[in-house]
Design brief:
Elements (H helix, E strand, L loop, with lengths): L3 H30 L9 H35 L13 H10 L15 H22 L6 H28 L1 H8 L3 H4 L5 H5 L23 H9 L4 H10 L16 H13 L8 H24 L7 H35 L14 H8 L5 H9 L10 H15 L26 H4 L5 H9 L2 H19 L12 H18 L1 H4 L6 H14 L5 H4 L5 H12 L8 H14 L4 H22 L2 H8 L5 H11 L5 H6 L10 H15 L2
């Protein structure tokens, strides 16, 4: 039989120790898990990191409350024996270090950065309460070396706690916009010594050694990332720089040897880590010099102090907490960077934003209509389950190569409005001369591109592309081979369908998600009268696709399936094109145009938000087109329609060609 009284006494004795060890364990878990956030990891593991992130502060605060509650009761009732438990008060400053968080996981969601004022208020209140409670709880007869050790730990805890709101404020979108609008070459000479202490040093910034040379870049890569994240018009900045006579321009400057994944990693670090402040002189002096010295002094003083009469378990616990917290706080950045480098060499997990989630309308409907499992899928969807696959890594890499190839052609997209992919009469950047191939006698193609709303156009072309792909690739024709232009076209189609269904805010502002839901319901109605054998095996779909096209092509007076009918007519028109190779080039060009246009019309804030939630391939495309000087949403709103790159466009294009040659050897 369980002795309830003994269990209560045991818990009363070990409660604080378990809470403090649990807080330390969460901090180490966050440190080791932080590098994994820069990869496309499973959503379940990302949720575990989120749970640890929000639980770490709550657990540390609860441990502080328990600690001071114990000593208030001990001082009034003397039930714990005074000196035997006073050593626990040394754990208070260590808990403040835990509350300060980790350098590599300052924020989990982008909204956390906007709450820096709340963290500042929390800083003042919790530090004040902790210092007051320590002074009230610490016995006056204790060894002075223990008091000095506690003071050292408190200084370390306060420093770490102060750095968190500083980093959050620096990573807020408004602050990024304010800082990125400063051209270093002009403002560096006017900085005061105090301002320089709290300004991040950059390798390309020569202001720390005096006047920058004339051939130095006006904006460093980190500055450009800040401007892109802040929704600042790069065309406007470039126009301003040209007026001021700067030879080096912002646009069309892809740094040699720097991959797009590096740009995305920098963008992630600016928002969700302390990259904005970690290289500031004041931060480096505290974290790399002062804090390690304080921990060494605190541990040394504690080791030299008289500990006779204290609980032996508390003495061991204090050693463990001080040592592992010291390593965590002083060497956390180094450990995290080493882990990331090790993971980048041995892991096969794709980098952030380098996978294309796959979601197909017809496959989704067929799965929902299966008698055995369809109802389970519908129930799971009601509770927030997102029914899509991660996508093939090799295929995603091929699509990325196609995108870069299309966008890095010199002079092709610089200063270009990507909406021109929808024109069949004017120069079309995505279709090229193929626009003349379908200009006459192809009303459905013209209407779906030029007259339909963007979200409706995406859905029409998704259904049509899927039907064409299924008709082309019957089971008998399928042989293992390398991903081709056709597979990449289908992958882009399924990815855009995924965006419309699950991330409509990224596809386009005002996208109507209900269009996809309505199309699913219409297809279910069309499938109800079909033979069940055709619905059991998705691989045998040739006859099913034929039925879909035939049903959709029928004239329906009540227009119940109008969107499905329009998609089927578009598919039939595409299938009737005589040249199959040109047909797939046409569909590839349309999807490339849709993908790039959607990326350019999505706000930088939304891209930055999705970086913290796992990232999207659309953000990869967005980085490429932003750095190449294509018109983004900020440029379209800020600059006139006829804005160009200015009088130095030819010089910039020549520099761009040299950069591309150096990038690809």
């Amino acid at each position: 039989m369980i002795d309830i009284r003994s269990s209560i006494l045991w818990w009363d004795e070990w409660q604080l120790r378990i809470l403090v060890l649990g807080s330390l364990g969460l901090q180490w878990f966050l440190l080791l898990a932080a590098p994994m956030r820069k990869y496309t990891i499973h959503s379940l593991f990302r949720r575990c990191i989120w749970l640890a992130y929000i639980s770490s502060d709550a657990l540390a605060i609860y441990a502080l409350a328990t600690l001071f509650s114990r000593h208030v009761r001990a001082s009034s009732a003397c039930e714990y024996g005074g000196k035997a438990t006073s050593l626990e008060v040394l754990w208070a400053p260590l808990l403040l270090v835990h509350l300060g968080g980790r350098d590599e996981i300052t924020a989990f969601n982008i909204e956390d950065n906007e709450l820096w004022t709340r963290h500042t208020v929390t800083l003042v209140s919790q530090v004040t309460v902790a210092v007051y409670a320590f002074c009230k709880s610490w016995p006056s007869a204790a060894d002075r070396r223990l008091v000095l050790s506690a003071i050292m730990l408190f200084i370390s805890g306060i420093i770490n706690f102060c750095e968190k709101p500083w980093a959050l404020r620096s990573a807020s979108i408004n602050r990024l916009a304010a800082m990125s609008s400063i051209i270093k070459g002009e403002r560096s000479r006017n900085r005061s010594g105090w301002e320089r202490c709290f300004t991040v040093m950059d390798n390309s910034d020569k202001c720390w050694k005096g006047k920058p040379p004339q051939d130095a870049a006006i904006l460093s890569p980190m500055d450009q990332v800040q401007m892109i994240l802040s929704d600042i018009s790069l065309l406007a900045v470039n126009n301003d720089l040209v007026k001021k006579g700067h030879k080096k321009q912002v646009l069309a400057r892809l740094s040699p040897g720097v991959s797009m994944t590096s740009w995305l990693r920098r963008a992630f670090e600016l928002i969700y880590t302390r990259a904005n402040v970690i290289y500031a002189p004041a931060y480096m002096a505290c974290d790399f010099l002062l804090v390690p010295a304080l921990y060494i002094a605190a541990i040394t003083l504690f080791a030299m102090s008289h500990k006779q009469g204290y609980n032996a378990t508390d003495v061991k616990m204090t050693y463990i907490l001080m040592f592992f917290t010291a390593v965590l706080d002083a060497l956390g950045v180094l450990i995290s960077k080493l882990l990331y480098k090790l993971m980048s060499k041995i892991t096969r997990v794709p980098a952030l934003c380098m996978t294309l989630p796959d979601y197909n309308l017809i496959n989704s409907v067929l799965k929902r209509m299966k008698p055995a499992t369809g109802w389970l899928l519908k129930c799971a969807t009601c509770f927030g389950y997102e029914d899509y696959s991660v996508g093939d890594r090799k295929l995603s890499a091929n699509v990325a190569e196609f995108v870069v190839y299309e966008l890095l052609k010199p002079g092709k997209v610089e200063g270009l409005d990507l909406a021109s992919y929808r024109s069949l009469t004017k120069p079309n950047w995505a279709l090229g001369e193929l626009r003349d191939y379908v200009q006459d006698g192809h009303e459905n193609i013209r209407r779906s591109l030029c007259d339909s709303p963007f979200d409706e156009s995406v859905l029409l072309w998704h259904i049509a592309t899927d039907l064409c792909f299924r008709m082309r690739h019957s089971e008998a024709d399928r042989t293992p081979r390398e991903p081709s232009r056709e597979e990449c076209t289908k992958a882009m189609s399924n990815y855009m369908a995924y965006l419309l269904q699950f991330r409509p805010e990224m596809l386009m502002t005002g996208s109507r998600q209900h269009l996809f839901t309505q199309a699913m319901e219409d297809l279910e109605d069309l499938f109800q009268d079909k033979e069940k054998g055709k619905l059991r095996d998705i691989q045998h779909y040739t006859s099913l696709v034929t039925d879909i096209i035939d049903e959709g092509a029928k004239e329906n007076n009540d227009k119940k399936y109008s969107l499905i009918q329009d998609a089927c007519k578009l598919a039939q028109e595409l299938l009737n094109l005589p040249d199959e190779e040109k047909r797939w080039k046409l569909m590839y060009g349309v999807w490339m145009g849709m993908l790039c246009y959607s990326a350019s019309m999505c706000r930088g804030y939304i891209h930055a938000k999705r970086l913290g939630e796992g990232g999207e391939f659309l953000s990869y495309v967005w980085i490429v087109i932003s750095l190449k000087g294509t018109k983004t949403l900020a440029d379209k709103l800020q600059m006139p329609e006829e804005a160009t790159l200015g009088p130095q466009k030819e010089e910039s294009q020549q520099e761009s060609e040299e950069d591309i040659e150096s990038m690809f050897g």
